Amino acid sequence: MEPAIENAVREVTDALSFLPGWAVAAIVLALALVASLAVHWLLGRLTRRAFAHRPGVVSLIAQTRALTRLAFVIIALALVLPALDLPPRAAGLFATALPFCFVVLLGWIALTAVDIGVSVYLMRYRLDAEDNLLARKHVTQMRVLKRVISTIVILFTAGAALMTIGAVRQIGVSLFASAGVAGLAVGLAARPVLANLIAGIQLAMTQPIRIEDAVIVENEWGWIEEITSTFVVVRLWDLRRMIVPLAYFMEKPFQNWTREGSAIIGNVLLYLDYAAPIEAIRAEAEAIVAASRLWDRKVVNVQVTDTKERVIEVRVLVSAANASAAFDLRCEVREKLIAFLRKEHPESLPRSRNETVEPQVADRRELEAQSPRPAAGAH
User: What's the number of CA atoms in the CB half-sphere (13 Å) around residue 101?
Assistant: First the structure.
């Protein structure tokens, strides 16, 4: 195929021999560029028509359109250039640019392959499912690994592309050979990047957090919204976003409410007077939870968990399918129990007292019998 292309190029150059050499080269390169784009368009159209009944293939073609277009252009230029009689300066420029573009193309292919592979792998998992523990596990793992691999590919691609440029390669070699202090400074400057990169690999393997995990970080409650190669975005309950370095989750303690599953038990604490009717509160709590659509029909319990100088601590445990439902269920139980106590048992609400305990009825009668009575008719 190459000899045929070279012969065709020579025929074109012979036909345009009346023009200056630079003009002939420009025309041939332009024709090669147009021909490569036309072939790419034609093949893309035929492929889309052939696989019109398979949306996945059509989507793949659309995602790789720019990539294949660049590949066609590079191939066309690489085939045409040897047959052109270019000036030494222009030939040197193309000799440097084509390997550079080829290395960039390889890196782009690697990034696209990683992206497509992760997307295809995650198609079987849905985060909007009721029990999404397995989906969150795989989504987190693949997204973190994708970012780590993409970072490595970009670094290697940039290094390999720059090494194709002779001047840059020589400067780099001389700098690293003669400047140990500079190398040490670069290593120290890159330490946070490397730490986050290693933390990302550890996080993908061990998974202390996953996408949509309910966590408490720095005394703030929220959900893991995004995990990047350098930081984690925590969506707080009031829709604020907390940005946390990736290494934080490998070095400092935090709470993960959905580590082993989406279901969670929430608690409601009430501080009541000693006169509070525990059995009535227990019955009312069970009725409230049974009527709620947020309860998962597993756990409801009422216990006196502590006694203090003026109040008792009553804990109500309720379970829900996920952290968000548990939070709403806790609020619902708390509100309705307070309303119940205010209406039916106001004496159970905490209050400050300044009163004495009255004697029992039998003791009161005995005291009245022992006390002297005034004589009849006395005034």
Answer: 18
Give the residue carrying structure tokens 């573009």: 101
Q: Is 331 found in the same domain as 305?
A: yes
Residues 6 or more apart whose Cβ sits within 8 Å of residue 250: 199, 202, 203, 208
pTM > 0.85: yes or no: no
Q: In what order do the strands lie in the sheet with 231-236?
A: 241-245, 231-236, 220-227, 214-217, 255-256
Helix (H, G, I), strand (E, B) or coil at 130: coil
Residue-number span of the structural domain to which 336 is assigned: 264-348
Co-location of 161 and 71 in the same domain: no
At 290, which amino acid appears? A
Give the tens place of pLDDT for each residue, 331-341: 999 999 999 99
* DSSP states along 195-222: HHHHHHHHHHHH-SS-TT-EEEETTEEE
Look at residues 75, 44, 43, 50 and name the one whose alpha carbon lies nearest to residue 62: 44
Q: At what angle do helices 65-80 and 55-63 cross, to 10 degrees?
A: 50
Does residue 377 belong to any structural domain of this protein?
no
Does residue 125 contact residue 135 with C-beta atoms inside 8 Å?
A: yes
Q: Among 226, 241, 262, which residue terminates a domain? A: 262
Residue 179: band (very low, low, confident or very high) from pLDDT cuts 50, 70, 90: very low
Nearest to 22 by CA among 80, 91, 69, 108: 91
Q: Which residues on neighbouring strands pair with residue 224, listed in sequence order?
A: 234
How many CB atoms are closer than 10 A to CB 26?
A: 13
